[in-house]
Each structure stands twice: as C-alpha cells, then as structure tokens.
C-alpha cells in the first residue's frame, strides 16, 4: 500500500477538512493514535486510521466504523475509520518486535538477550511467525557454514544442535540429457555441514525461548504501524475469522498491534512488509542502488535406499535440463537417516514464458545419474521458495526510521557459494547489537548499516559480486568468467558488473517461443503438483479472503494471457493460478489461494507486477519440518 | 458447576503421516503436533456453556508426556481456567487407562460435566468417552451435534448424530458428552491470551498419585500403510470380463463394460 496514495498528509486534521463521505479511497496507512498529543485517550481520534485491505466488504467496515462517534459524522463511505484505539485493536508493547522466526530473526533475538545478560539489564523481545510453528515456512538446501553460529552460540556442538553431518564429498557435474560430466568443484565446503534448516531453526527457537524471547507462531504481521512522524512503531497482525467475502465469521478475532521501540523485519526473501518499507523509504537508492534479482528453488526430501546413501555428499549440477540462456542448477545433499535433499534452482529472469520450474525439476530427476539414486526411495517432503541472487549490487540500506531489515528480506546470499544462512544470521546479530545500543545507550540505528559495511558479510559479498552478473552473457561465458574470478581475480577486478533487466521485465512475449512439452510424471520418480503439494503439508483456512491480490483485475486476461500465455500458471510451484474457461468467451484466471506455498514467485515474476502477495491468516501455509 | 474437558495431543491434521521404517508405529519425530480437532470442539463447547452462565469453571486435562503441556497452554489460551497434566511417560496410553485416569480425576475435581472429543485422529478409537461413562456409571451423550444445558433442572439435552439421523437424549447431570464435528466452530486463541497463558500454572499429577495403574492389555505388533490403490482396468469385451472374474479378481467393481 503505497503511502503516497494516502489521501491527506499525516498532520492534517480531518475535522477541519472534512472529506466527502462518498469518496472511496482504497489505500491507507494506519497511524499510532496514542502518540499524538492531539488525540484524546478515548473517543474519536483525529487522524485517519484504516488498516483496511482493499477488498474488505463494506459490512465489516461499517461494523467497526459504527463503534466510533466521529466516524458516524464523517464516513458513511466506510473506508475511513477514526479511532481511539486504532479501530478497536489491543496494543501490546515490547522493546523489540521481530517479524519472522527464521535464522536472521532468531539470531537477532538471541543476540539481544545475550547482550542484556552481559550488561545486567533486560529488554522485552517478541518474535512473530506466520507459520503454524517455528520452522514451518523454512526451506533451504542446506549446506551450512557455521561461521555466524560459532559467534552466536559458540558451544552449539554441546547443546544438541541438529548439525551432525559434515560435508564429506564435494561434486560438481555438467549434465547433458544422458551424461554427467564431472568438473572440478568450484565450492570448498570443508568445515561445513549438511543440515535441515527447518530443524536448525526449531532448535534456535528453543535456545531463544530459554533466554526469555517470546515467540508467537501462527500470527502473521500484515501491517506496519506508523506514528505521525512517519516513523515505524510496530506491526499489527491480521484479523482472523474473516470469510471469503469479507464478512466476519463467528470466530472473528480482531488483529493485535505489537508496538516496539525497534521493529526488525526478518521475513525472508521478498518479504511483504519489507518490500513495502523498501519502496516507501526508497531504501534501494540509499543502498547499493541496483534492483534485487531472484531465483526460485524447488526441493524434495527423499528417503533413499541404504546402499546409495553416503552422508555428507554434496553434489551440484549445471546444464541440463536448463538451456544456455537460463541461469540455474541443481543440488543434491545427503543428510542423515538415509535422507537426501534434492532440488533445482532457476533464476527468475528466464526468458521463455512457457518454462515451468516445477516440470523442469521433475525432468531433472529422470536424468540417468540422478534417477538411479532415487529409485526405490520415497519422497518425504516437497516445497519451494524464492531466493535472492542480487548479491552485493542489490543490497538496500536496511535501516528505516524505527527499525531495520535483516536477513534475506534485505538480501545477503553469497550466490557463487550458494549460501545465505550464515550472512542472514550475522546480519541479525549486527542489527541486534545496534538495536541494543539504541535502546540502552541512545545511539542511532544507522550504526547497523555502518557495522554491516565493516563486517565479513560485506567483504564476502564484495568478493563474490561479479559471478552472477557474468551469466547475463550466457552459460559458457559465465562459467568461464567464474573460473577466472575464482582462481585469478578473486573479486579484485576494479569493476562491478551490473544486473540485467529486473526479473519481471525479462520475460519475452510468448510469440517468440514455442510451448514446451513436458513429459508426464511417472509416479515413482516424478510426480504431479497435487501429489507434491500434499507432501508439503500445506493448509490454509479455506474460508478467508484470497491473500493474492491483483492490483488491476483485468490485466491477467488483457495482458498476461494474450501476450505471455499466462506464465503464472506455469511458474507457480503450487499451481495456484489457473486459466479456466469461463461462461462468456475465453479463459479466466482462477486463483486457488489455498495451495499457496508462500514462495513469492508470483510477486517477483508477474510481468506487470500486478500480483501482490499479502500475508494470509496466520498459521496457514506449508508445514515444512525436514527441509 | 465445573466442567472437565479432556484433550489430547496428536499429530496435526494437515501433516502427511508416514509409517516408521521398522513398522513399529507412525513417525512422530520432526512432525508437527497439535490439539485433536474434536478436543478443540469439546473445549469450545465447554467455554460457551461457561459464558452462558451455566458453569463456573472450565478445567482442561490431558494425559501424556511432558510436551503435552503445550496443548494445555493452547487450552488455557482459548479460555480454560485451569489445567491439569497427567504425566504418564512417553509410551502411548490406551483408552481404557485414560478412562481410569479420568475417573480418578473426576472423583477429585467433582465436575458436573465431562466433555471429550468423540475420537482422536491418531488412533480413531472412539472409546474413551464411553468407557469413562461406564466406569463412572454416568449417562453419556456421544457424537453430540447440539448441547443445551438446563441449569435449574440439572439436565443436558444432547442431539446426537447417529447412523440413522439425529437422536435427542436428555441426560441427568453429571454426565459425559463427546463432541462431533458439527457442534461448533472453535475460537482462535488470541495473542494476548496466549501470552497470559504462558504464565499460568499447570498442575502436574502422576497416575500413581491418582492410584491408577497404567497397564496395557494390547501390544501393537505391526503398523503398515494401506495397500496402494491400483489403477482401474478398462475391459474391452464380455469374454475378457469373464476370464478376469474366473482367474484374477477376488472382488470387483463393474463400472464400464464395452
């Protein structure tokens, strides 16, 4: 919700400038009423305060409006709500509010509490998590570099951390349709571990709770709270128990406001609140300047036959099934308990709108070298998520008035290493240190940006900044340049390559490509989407408003379908978007929001950026446990 | 009047369940657990009865290992006044033992109503409620889809979903009610309530303190997945059908014959 579209500036008094009650403005921001000196403690407030999502039914708006005296005078149109307590929501106060219980969020929480203990003080820290439990929305390869964890919890080995499988073999293959050519591995994973990030995060949550951090899974932060100086003062969870048409069900519960002196956003890649903050405060321009680029990763966890399993084996491939112009590759990591993680990562600046990442992944599994490994095994879990590939050039200034953005929401993945967990954790720790100094010592949050630039994150990302952009010139030039970078230049070239077009602009129109015929799944090694979705334990309360919003509802049929052949029906790994025949003439977009894996691919790749991913009712979404 | 609600911690209903490789049971490590959906409905009904004024206190009780305290915290967050945790160790406790424990607790707490979910989604036993009623010699209204309490007459009118339709029973309190799906829609536990529930005290009891001996008369020998459903075969002629009936098929479903 862009703040520039808010009807009047923050300090005006609507009583003096009454708006026409019939004006119906869809986009607002919420203000913090208790901070305004003009606002009385109870009764009607003087500032517009409407956390209404665009498709709320007029009925619910009227209900909340009618509880307020001034609103009866001013807004029969219903979209504007005056409030004494922000529309009747309860407010809870913390020193630090963290959105997202992932590696970055939990590292920040743990670090804050550690600093409190060291200085004999205390800060109240609250972590909100939209998944039904901690770790439910965490999915990652994952080959873990323990650098940040060694700094955070030095004795993790003795504390039962689920980090047990050291990397034993590092393999790198170039795949053709039938062959696998072994190349020297560009990775050096000595000292790293093959883990399930979901399990690690759950362990980190127990550590955080031991230190006194309050973690609340099942609550989705859907809205940023501002005060009258446009400073962020917290977040609010969404209302629960709202029916599909916007009316209130009998289980309706109003959302809750969590006010924090500092708000840290750790929502992961393409976080919905983080993107809003980055846009509103123009953080990309204030940072490294380039736009963020993304990839989508689709992964399965398999249990394979005993003889084929070698714990600690790390395999990466490039080449088939992707073509020379599409950046991406696959990974296959052997964990313990005969489990392996296998996945395919495809950069989202692919050109062919007929590409379906899910089907490319199913194709990959049929490669002879990979199929032989999987045969006889069974799939335990499936999932997908976007990841950022912009690296150094795309880092935004993560500090905004009232808080900061940490982890993948800002984007610290080291793309050539394919690791981002350690940098995400370190960024959380640095933000926690800055926040502690703000709350305990009166410093400014900007010290987070400064400490980031002086940390090993910066140095690591600087050295690896040119690998990914070199692939704009194709697979072979990219590989050649990568070899040069790795063995000769090591990041010391005095130039920084720029990214190509933003991912959503990179899609060609469908006319210049031919549709790709994907083979049918065989049910043993490759599967269809419903079977895979079932394995992701995805569930949403079905009777709720669709959380995938179209900014212009006509664009799918006017632009996406005729020009791009409806790419959202292909890149979504959960087949949320379907074009179905409608009664009148052609095809209509049907959104199965209940399938959503919260991967954010649609938010990234939609050609007109028409799809806005917003957060559904808390507790819904995938249920990852071993990914 | 006090209402006692028995809840159970089970594998979350949205999780894809897997059999352990050694076939001794279902995989429960690294799997999301939550309150049995029918138990949520039972708790919701107890809360509504309290809110209508017919009862004073709702006590949630669970039997299970230490992690079950989370389920009780959810119950407290939804609105239960007190919680009791009967720690019976890590081994699964069978319905008869649970029923004996509940009988002992009932004798301690003296509730006017005992509400349970009709069955747990992990074992689908549908036994505990009926067994407790038998042990206590209390009237029972199972598969309740509607419950109306009359405070003065101390009577509960229960509409039950049975195979033939709906049956209405009148039970003298104290009674046992087990809840079915359509009874109510459980409320969400709000964030402030979850916060408050974290600091509430959960009373811990062991079966020995209740003088209940947990012994299992049943031993689980093997757990296997149901056989995978085979694809249907389209038969092209009557002769082929007869051939298949004679030689291959034990039971068959004749849907389409050309």
From TrEMBL, chain A:
GO terms for molecular function: 4 iron, 4 sulfur cluster binding; electron-transferring-flavoprotein dehydrogenase activity; metal ion binding. Binds 1 [4Fe-4S] cluster. The keyword Iron-sulfur applies. Its cofactor is [4Fe-4S] cluster; FAD. SUPFAM superfamilies: 4Fe-4S ferredoxins, FAD-linked reductases, C-terminal domain, FAD/NAD(P)-binding domain. It comes from the Eukaryota. Belongs to the ETF-QO/FixC family. This is Electron transfer flavoprotein-ubiquinone oxidoreductase. It comes from Elaeis guineensis var. tenera (Oil palm). The lineage of its organism: Eukaryota, Viridiplantae, Streptophyta, Embryophyta, Tracheophyta. The gene is LOC105054070.
């Amino acid at each position: 919700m862009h703040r520039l579209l808010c009807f009047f500036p923050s300090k005006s008094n609507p009583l003096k400038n009454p708006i026409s009650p019939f004006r119906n403005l869809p986009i607002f921001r919420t203000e913090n009423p208790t901070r305004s000196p003009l606002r009385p403690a109870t009764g009607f407030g003087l500032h517009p305060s409407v956390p209404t999502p665009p498709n709320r039914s007029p009925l619910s708006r009227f209900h909340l409006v009618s509880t307020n005296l001034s609103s009866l005078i001013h807004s029969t149109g219903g979209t504007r709500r005056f409030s004494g307590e922000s529309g009747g929501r309860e407010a809870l106060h913390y020193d630090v509010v963290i959105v997202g219980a992932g590696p970055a969020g939990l590292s920040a929480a743990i670090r804050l509490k550690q600093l409190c203990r060291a200085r004999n003080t205390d800060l109240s820290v609250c972590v909100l998590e939209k998944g039904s439990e901690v770790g439910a929305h965490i999915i990652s390869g994952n080959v873990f570099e323990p650098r940040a964890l060694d700094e955070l919890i030095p004795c993790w080995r003795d504390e039962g951390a689920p980090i047990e499988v050291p990397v034993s073999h590092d393999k790198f293959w170039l795949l053709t349709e039938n062959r696998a050519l072994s190349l020297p591995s560009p990775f050096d994973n000595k000292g790293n571990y093959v883990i399930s990030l979901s399990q690690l995060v759950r362990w980190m949550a127990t550590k955080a709770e031991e230190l006194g951090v309050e973690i609340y899974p099942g609550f989705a932060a859907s809205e940023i709270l501002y005060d009258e100086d446009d400073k962020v003062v917290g977040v609010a969870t969404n209302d629960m128990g709202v029916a599909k048409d916007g009316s209130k069900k009998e289980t309706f519960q109003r959302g809750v406001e969590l006010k924090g002196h500092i708000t840290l956003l750790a929502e992961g890649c393409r976080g919905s609140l983080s993107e809003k903050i980055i846009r509103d405060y123009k953080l990309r321009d204030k940072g490294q300047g380039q736009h963020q680029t993304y990839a989508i990763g689709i992964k399965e966890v398999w249990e394979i036959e005993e003889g084929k399993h070698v714990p600690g084996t790390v395999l990466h491939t490039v080449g088939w099934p992707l073509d020379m112009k599409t950046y991406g590759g696959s990974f296959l990591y052997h964990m313990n308990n005969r489990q392996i993680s296998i996945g395919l990562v495809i950069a989202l600046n692919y050109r062919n709108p007929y590409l379906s990442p899910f089907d490319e992944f199913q194709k990959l599994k049929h490669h002879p070298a990979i199929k032989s490994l999987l045969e006889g095994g069974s799939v335990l879990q499936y999932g997908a998520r976007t990841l950022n590939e912009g690296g150094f050039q795309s880092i935004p200034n993560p500090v905004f008035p009232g808080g900061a953005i940490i982890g993948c929401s800002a984007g610290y993945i080291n793309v050539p290493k394919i690791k981002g967990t350690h940098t995400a954790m370190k960024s959380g720790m640095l933000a926690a240190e800055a926040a502690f100094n703000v709350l305990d010592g009166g410093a400014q949050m900007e010290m987070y940006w400064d400490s980031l630039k002086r940390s090993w994150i910066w140095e690591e990302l600087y050295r690896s900044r040119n690998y990914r952009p070199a692939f704009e010139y194709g697979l072979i030039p990219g590989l050649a340049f990568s070899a040069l970078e790795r063995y000769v230049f090591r990041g010391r070239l005095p130039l920084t390559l720029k990214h190509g077009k933003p991912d959503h602009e990179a899609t060609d129109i469908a006319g210049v490509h031919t549709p790709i015929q994907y083979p049918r799944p065989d049910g043993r090694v490759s599967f269809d989407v419903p079977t895979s979705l079932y394995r992701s334990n995805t569930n949403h309360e079905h009777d709720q408003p669709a959380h995938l919003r179209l900014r212009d509802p006509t664009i799918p049929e006017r632009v996406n379908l005729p020009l791009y052949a409806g790419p959202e029906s292909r890149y979504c790994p959960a087949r949320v978007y379907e074009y179905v025949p409608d009664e009148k003439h052609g095809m209509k977009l049907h959104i199965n929001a209940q399938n959503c894996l919260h991967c954010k691919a649609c938010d990234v790749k939609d050609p007109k950026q028409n799809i806005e991913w917003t957060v559904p009712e808390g507790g819904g979404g995938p249920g990852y446990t071993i990914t | 009047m006090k209402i006692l609600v028995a809840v159970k911690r089970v594998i979350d209903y949205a999780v894809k369940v897997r059999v352990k490789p050694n076939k001794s049971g279902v995989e429960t490590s690294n799997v999301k657990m939550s309150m049995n959906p029918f138990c949520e409905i039972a708790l919701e009904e107890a809360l509504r009865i309290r809110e209508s004024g017919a009862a004073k206190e709702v006590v949630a009780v669970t039997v299970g290992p230490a992690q079950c305290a989370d389920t009780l915290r959810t119950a407290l967050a939804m609105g239960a006044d007190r919680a009791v945790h009967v720690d019976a160790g890590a081994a699964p406790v069978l319905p008869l033992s649970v029923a004996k424990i509940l009988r002992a607790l009932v004798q301690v707490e003296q509730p006017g109503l005992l509400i349970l979910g009709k069955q747990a989604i992990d074992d689908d036993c549908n036994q505990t409620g009926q067994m407790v009623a038998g042990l206590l010699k209390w009237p029972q209204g199972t598969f309740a889809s509607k419950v109306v309490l009359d405070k003065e007459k101390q009577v509960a009118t229960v509409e039950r979903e049975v195979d033939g339709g709906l049956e209405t029973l009148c039970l003298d309190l104290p009674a046992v009610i087990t809840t079915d799906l359509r009874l109510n829609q459980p409320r969400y536990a709000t964030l402030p309530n979850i916060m408050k529930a974290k600091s509430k005290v959960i009373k811990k009891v062991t079966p020995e303190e209740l003088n209940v001996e947990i012994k299992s008369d049943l031993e689980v020998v093997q757990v296997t997945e149901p056989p995978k459903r085979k694809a249907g075969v389209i038969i092209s002629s009557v002769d082929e059908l007869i051939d298949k009936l004679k030689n291959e098929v034990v039971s068959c479903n004749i849907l389409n014959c050309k």
